[in-house]
Amino acid sequence: MTTSHPIIYYDIASKQPSRTFAPNPWKIRLALNYKGLPYKTQWTNMPDIHSLREGLGIPANRTLPDGTPYHTLPAIQDSATGKLEGDSFAIALYLDSQYPETPRLFRPNTIGLTAAFNQQVDGIFTKHTGLSTKMPFDASIEEEVKAMFVKRVGASKWEDLLPSPEERAKDLVSLEAALEELAKAYQHTGGTTDWVWRARGTATEQKQVPGREEAGVLLDGGEPVYADFIVGAWVKMFEACMADEDWEKMRGWQGGLWGRVADYMERFAEMK
Ligand SMILES: N[C@@H](CCC(=O)N[C@@H](CS)C(=O)NCC(=O)O)C(=O)O
Known about the structure:
With 272 residues, the protein is α+β, with helices and mostly antiparallel strands.
């Protein structure tokens, strides 16, 4: 039964107006809206995620390169059941099992498959997060957030984390090539990835595949599933955080597929 008690949904705060921008929170924002569950967002500044989760009693779920655990979002607290969950995939599973009468995120027997896809897609985009050069943090915490990232990677200053124009150009070519492979899943083709030896993209030495049929906006058509929200979340993150001219390029890659995915996800993007 859908409950009248709202789920508290913890998301990372942006500058005003508050909006989701980070990929894992996006996955759950899209999922909650798709399922039509009543929820209320509690926006949390990035430097406060640690104390929030410790206060709620949710264990850390990521580790820094030196082994120190650190806390992340999304997390949910379901006041109907008392359930606390602090990992996006586990939240998606919980929502389907607790609210089975709402639209399903997972079709039967696809949980392992979707978990593997989650890892694969996270890997593709994480490799290219250097392109997200305009994270929309509030000015009041921006310096603190930058200092957190600088300390984490053992750099001496924020500017050292930003890609040079040459690195950015290389990253764009590499992301386009990786997305060329991902686009095959939308066309139900696929096969062994070949971009390692025959990178594709718009760089002058590369060629686009001729005669591509327009790919559908969902992996399997019909209704979306969690796998669609995994990709949709990352595409929305890049839309929010990339330099405008880079996003304009990405929108148009693979016959405009990523622009269509970003636009489609808008129907599940309400910030409640
Ligand atoms: N495995 C976790 C990963 C969550 C995660 O990495 N969240 C990022 C945002 S996408 C975060 O909260 N980062 C906080 C930080 O880096 O301090 C999940 O799927 O929920």
